Amino acid sequence: MKQQRRASDYDVTGTVQVSSASAVRDVIRDMFDQLYPDGNFEPMPTVFEDFRRLFEGELPGFRGCDTVYHDMQHTLDITLAFMRLVGGYERRHPTEPLGPENCKLGLVTALFHDSGYILRDDDDRINGAEYTRTHVSRGARFMAEYFPTVGIGEMVEPATTIVHFTGYEVDPNTIDVAKPLHRVIGQLVGTADLVAQMADRCYLEKCRDRLFTEFVLGGLVESSPTENFPSGIDLLRKTPEFFDNAFNRLDGPLEGVYSYFTDWFSTGDPYTESIYQNRRYLEKVLEAGDWSILRRKPPVFTTGGQQQLEDTQEIALIRLRESVTD
User: Fold this and answer.
1) Which domains does the chain have, with CATH numbers?
2) At what angle do helices 72-92 and 44-55 cross, to 10 degrees?
3) Angle between helical axes of 21-35 and 100-112 (0-180°, round to 10)
4) Contact present, 179 and 96 (Cβ < 8 Å)
5) Cα(193)–Cα(213) distance, integer angstroms
6) Buried b (16+ CB within 10 A) or exposed e, 194-209
7) Residue 226, SS3?
């Protein structure tokens, strides 16, 4: 059981505990110092600590993370993937580097790209997933408020623009950036957001058991009185199509920047390899029709943990029933 927990909250290489803000911070700092020997990592230690406080409900004015799919591990996994893409980019383009400031711009954007899911004290919603459709814009609002408090007010404008590379509120082809390298940073953040979650060894279970409930609470799932209630299994049946659409986005407006993983890792791209492995496994499950094969139960990194997962699933079921009777 201990080994299962360790594997489930570690990154795709099995070397970094992506449920720990301090562990991810330390790895990223080592990478930053390696890439930018003369760079200044400040104020990132403070930013990582404030990220932890925000998600754990310790930041004044906020209730902490209650979204069981978009939890702390999700964001830290993506932030680490972003930094690895930066490392690959810098190795491939030594004469046209992103540089330390653009790197930090991407790091703070990655850390807070899903902050719009976090409920504020004055919110009247039951769960942050109810903001699924608008969470990116809400996250931009948080960044605009928070960045000046840690001395990076100059990053508000670019960060609140490039964060939309992670969402669907704005067509990424139409995002207007002030500098060409800001577009690259946005593409790297958007790519990390897609790739890291699809490469998660528990991605399939998380889609079935967690993402579906968030979609229900976010108003993205409808039920019919003439059909059985939709379920997480229905979402998994659509996941092969999502894989295709995701790579259309990765190779289209995000311009294939996931290829920078091969410049960072000496043994290939573990993210893409893991994604293909997840897809192949899902196809076997779909062919067999045996959903019990997906039996992993990874830990939940929200303020309420496992109980929050059970409560969220119950709320989602109630919402589905209400959608039929309304």
Assistant:
1) 2-325 (1.10.1300)
2) 150
3) 160
4) no
5) 20
6) bbbbbbbbbbbbbbbb
7) coil
Looking up tokens 């069981």 gives 68
> pLDDT of 205-242, one tens digit each?
999 999 999 999 999 987 554 445 589 999 999 999 99
Amino acid identity for residue 287 in this structure: E
CA separation, residue 129 to residues 67, 112, 200, 213, 236 (Å): 6, 16, 20, 8, 19
pLDDT for 3: 34
- Can you give the pTM of this predicted structure? 0.95
Q: How many Cα neighbours within 13 Å face the side chain of 123?
A: 18
Q: Which of 189, 219, 163 is nearest to 98 (CA)?
A: 189
Q: What residue has token string 């946005």?
A: 186
**Which amino acid, 258?**
Y
Q: Show Cβ contacts of residue 251 under 8 Å, excluding neighbours closer than 6 positions.
A: none
Which range among 228-237, 275-284, 309-318 shows the weakest confidence by mean pLDDT? Answer: 228-237
